[in-house]
Amino acid sequence: FFAFDSGGCDVALRVQPAGSDFTPGTMELRLTNNTAGNLFGLNFGYDVAVLNDQGRANSFGFSFSQNGNPAVALGSQDFTSPEAADGAPAWVTTARSGRIVFNQPLAPGEFVDLIWTGDDVSGGGSRDEFGLDNVSFAGTESLGSVIAEDNFDGTNTFASRTITPENSGNSPPGTFAGSDFDVFGIVDRTVNSDFNSDTPAGKVDSFFGVEDVENGDNPGGTGTATWTANITGATDLTLAVDIWANLGDFESSDTFEFSYSIDGSPAETLLVSSVDDGLEPGQDLLINDIVLDEASFQTFFAAIDGTGDLLTITFDTEQNAAGELFGFDNLQVLGTAAVVPEPASLLIWALLGAIAGIGALRWRRSKR
Known about the structure:
Elements: E1 2-5, E2 11-15, E3 25-32, E4 39-51, E5 56-66, E6 72-73, E7 79-80, E8 91-106, E9 111-123, E10 129-140, E11 145-150, E12 160-164, E13 175-176, E14 179-187, H1 193-198, E15 207-211, E16 222-230, E17 235-245, E18 255-262, E19 268-275, E20 285-287, E21 290-291, E22 298-304, E23 310-318, E24 326-336, H2 344-367
Antiparallel strand pairs: 1-2, 2-10, 3-9, 4-8, 4-10, 5-6, 5-7, 5-9, 11-24, 12-16, 13-14, 14-15, 15-24, 16-23, 17-22, 17-24, 18-19, 18-23, 19-20, 20-21
């Protein structure tokens, strides 16, 4: 690594990858929240420079890690140098920028690592040189306003909601016909004794519950719920949802996933479960590598990249045992809403009113 001036007093952190250097390797920058409040993410920018003077392609990726958790790669920031060397090699700089949304808020004193990773991709022989310059970042104290929400207690501002299998007409609502202990749908803690015993104390409103989805009424063992929202003109979108599980002895075959699609594009994962068999039973279900807390519904956030007109949020599950309870509540899409222009007719009436006011003022002055 070098603090190298490529000309014009442009000093940057530069690296010459070699067989045992930066192939793979990382540059890491640790940021600590020294503010008095939570940060929900970062807006970032940096320049990646490359001297493409060798016949090998190398990558320069970007990821982040919150409080030492596994790194989250930002694929949209990936950069790979060409395999064929330039005829007249010179340093070329490419600007990168974007936003990070933390899955859970970064509290005062907590930290996030920004990580740049290099590695070989293709070709052979010596490697291109890389540089990192003009790194900037700003903490995000708000994720914007509510674009659409469903609190499962009567407030649902999404354009549509579809639940499959649909169990709302059963008794109790949200349960499969064959058993109160087979659940997929909107419920409250009174739906059965499992939820009544294990749902966090004080949770008395409705939520979306999941238990033993594989049953005689649903032998496939899967469930899907989708929501759509009009996002025309909206930007910087984020999913927010409160998630809870009783942390029974989940298996890797038990899956819970939230994803999104804009205008029919391929689905992108937002939040996904995993099981860590190395943890004690009852503490082994994670969402995006964060262990769930059975004592409360935890709020998770995930960035929705892109813009368009119609957003689809999908929840998918595959789960096959009673006593393993999962629930979520307060599903929201946050962001910066489109600015709605004032109707032209209102502007015309306002202008006419102003003209009339000026005319009346002149008339009163002429009467004096």
